[in-house]
């Protein structure tokens, strides 16, 4: 459910940085500990971006794995929600990655002076729709 | 026309967190401490608050900010106890948000008599996922998990169980009638949030509620 609010926040960040240019793609990193479903995020982004300069933009979600380090030195990738160290059972554990939730970059269409009269290079609609969900884990 | 990449490097929740910090600064200026109370729907947030506020927190003056998707049933229950209650409904948004965010709390600030209270308890919208993501300007975060929800909930909602500093296990008066294993629940909780403080209460019988009242008074 929180994907709806998050997609709105992603849209706001993209619109702010696009400075009026048309956005064709948005790259987002989502940590595995965030309980964010990339497909839902793409779905909501498509809805909230309609009528904005991000309309039709592809949301590319990159999932950052959950990596933890225990005070004993052991490092591991979390597969299930067990935050105690599998080696020493200690609880002094640091999350190295997996809590990210960031808009990394956007891809925009530049209106260069010499090519301003060329028609926009829109990819076929079907191709783009397919692309939209493939970045999901 | 050509495409170019623009670096954004912005946390998705940065805008929310900025407003949350502004809320927190306003609360600090007014000398008000804030607890964000979260749980699934029906876990007993309002019942527990009713029980605590019935006896009061000694010298500590408490106010409640009541977050609901719709209606003011909970606010009416609490205001019967002569506690200042402010209602926020999330439904004017896109179908009604399932959580409070910093901006919603900010919009309600003017309606809260901050100079008349020492502690503000924000009763979030009942939901085990979304409220965990959105800071609202609180000092502490507590959640209620009731035994009727099942012992697997920490494993299913680790984000929420990790986001809080206190887990109140409610409805323990029902334990004799349920297959719920308290031991297994606490083991699951320890896996997800090792060492997190917990307390066992029944808002219905009042058992253990004094411990929660003390925790709230300590925050203030």
Fraction of residues of chain A in helices? 25-40%
Number of strands of chain A: 6
Number of helices of chain A: 3
Mean pLDDT of chain A: 85
Instruction: Give the strand line-up of the largest sheet of chain B.
Output: 4-3-5-2-6-7-8
H/E element string of chain B? EHEHEHEHEEHHEHEH
Approximately how much beta-strand content do the residues of chain A carry? 25-35%
Q: Mind telling me the C-alpha Rg of chain A?
A: 19 Å
Work out the oligomeric state of the chains in this entry: heterodimer
Mean pLDDT of chain B: 93
Provide structural commentary.
The complex is a heterodimer of chains A (137) and B (220). With 137 residues, chain A is of the alpha+beta class. Chain A has a single domain (2-65, 98-134), classed as hypothetical protein PF0899 fold. Chain A is built from three helices and six strands; from the N terminus they run αβαβββββα. Chain A has helices spanning 2-18, 38-48, 125-134, and strands spanning 22-31, 58-64, 67-70, 75-77, 93-97, 101-110. In chain A, the strands form two sheets. Chain A has a three-stranded mixed sheet with strand order 2-1-6. Chain A has a three-stranded antiparallel sheet with strand order 4-3-5, with no helix packed on it. In chain A, α1 crosses α2 (38-48). Chain A is elongated, with a radius of gyration of 19 Å. The model of chain A is unreliable at 114-118 and 123-137 (pLDDT under 50). Chain B is α/β, with parallel strands linked by helices. Chain B has one domain: Rossmann fold. In chain B, 33% of the residues lie in helices and 23% in strands. Chain B has a seven-stranded parallel sheet, with helices on both faces. In chain B, α1 packs parallel to α4. Chain B is globular and about 70 Å long. Chains A and B meet through α1 and β6 of A and β1, α1, α6 and α7 of B. β6 (101-110) of chain A pairs antiparallel with β1 (2-11) of chain B.
């Amino acid at each position: 459910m929180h994907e709806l609010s998050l997609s709105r926040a992603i849209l706001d960040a993209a619109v702010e940085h696009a400075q009026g240019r048309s956005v064709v793609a948005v790259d987002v990193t989502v940590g595995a500990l965030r309980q964010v479903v990339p497909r839902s995020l793409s779905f909501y982004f498509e809805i909230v971006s309609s009528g904005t300069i991000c309309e039709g933009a592809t949301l590319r979600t990159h999932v950052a794995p959950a990596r933890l380090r225990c005070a004993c030195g052991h490092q591991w990738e979390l597969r299930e929600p067990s935050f105690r160290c599998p080696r020493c059972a200690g609880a002094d554990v640091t999350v190295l990655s997996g809590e990210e939730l960031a808009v990394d970059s956007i891809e925009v269409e530049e209106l260069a002076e010499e090519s301003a009269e060329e028609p926009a290079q829109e990819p076929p609609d079907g191709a783009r729709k397919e692309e939209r969900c493939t970045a999901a884990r | 026309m050509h495409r170019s990449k623009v670096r954004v490097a912005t946390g998705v929740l940065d805008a929310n967190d900025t407003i949350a910090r502004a809320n927190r600064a306003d609360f600090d200026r007014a000398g008000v401490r804030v607890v964000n109370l979260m749980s699934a729907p029906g876990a007993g947030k309002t019942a527990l608050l009713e029980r605590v506020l019935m006896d009061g927190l000694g010298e500590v003056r408490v106010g409640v900010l009541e977050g609901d998707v719709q209606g003011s049933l909970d606010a009416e229950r609490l205001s019967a106890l002569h506690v200042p209650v402010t209602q926020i409904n999330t439904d004017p948004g896109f179908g009604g948000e399932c959580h409070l965010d910093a901006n919603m709390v900010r919009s309600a600030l003017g309606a809260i008599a901050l100079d008349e209270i020492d502690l503000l308890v924000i009763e979030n919208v009942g939901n085990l996922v979304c409220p965990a993501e959105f800071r609202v300007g609180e000092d502490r975060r507590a959640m209620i998990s009731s035994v009727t929800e099942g012992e697997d909930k920490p494993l299913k909602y680790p984000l929420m169980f990790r986001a809080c500093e206190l887990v109140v296990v409610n409805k323990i008066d029902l334990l004799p009638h349920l297959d719920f294993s308290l031991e297994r629940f606490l083991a699951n909780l320890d896996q997800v949030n090792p060492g997190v403080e917990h307390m066992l209460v029944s808002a219905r019988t009042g058992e253990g509620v004094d411990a929660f009242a003390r925790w709230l008074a300590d925050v203030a």
